[in-house]
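[09:14] KT: can someone run the structure on this one? pasting the chain below
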Amino acid sequence: MRSFFFAFLFLGGFLSFALSGAEFKPVEEKFQGEIVRIGTGECREVGSKCLDEVFLVVKMEDGQEMVWHIGPKTVVSEMIRALTVGQRITGLVFKTMNLAPGHYLVRQIITKDQDIEFRNHDLQPFWAL
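[09:31] RB: done, structure tokens below
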């Protein structure tokens, strides 16, 4: 009977959390680095169903490499046309619970000549609005 009571308390706490509207809120971070690769293809780290996604491998000043996931190639390829390997960029990026370490989703990329927004301030991609 006692274990039933504790299970009931646990389940009740879980349900109240789940029904309260509490959710994971990604935190936007700002990083600067150099593009070492511009790639396309399926990326399982994002957890999306996009088979042809655009991503950047960006090297930070400390030598660490990060993968910045931008979006579907059909939507964003024209927007990133001016980006080149070796170019220094600033990224406003965020993580979700699904992403592997070192992987981020991009909200905005800032270069010397360009400011490219892929998602709004609520982190929703413009192509999904």
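[09:33] KT: thanks! The longest helix spans residues 2-19.
[09:34] RB: yep, looked fine to me
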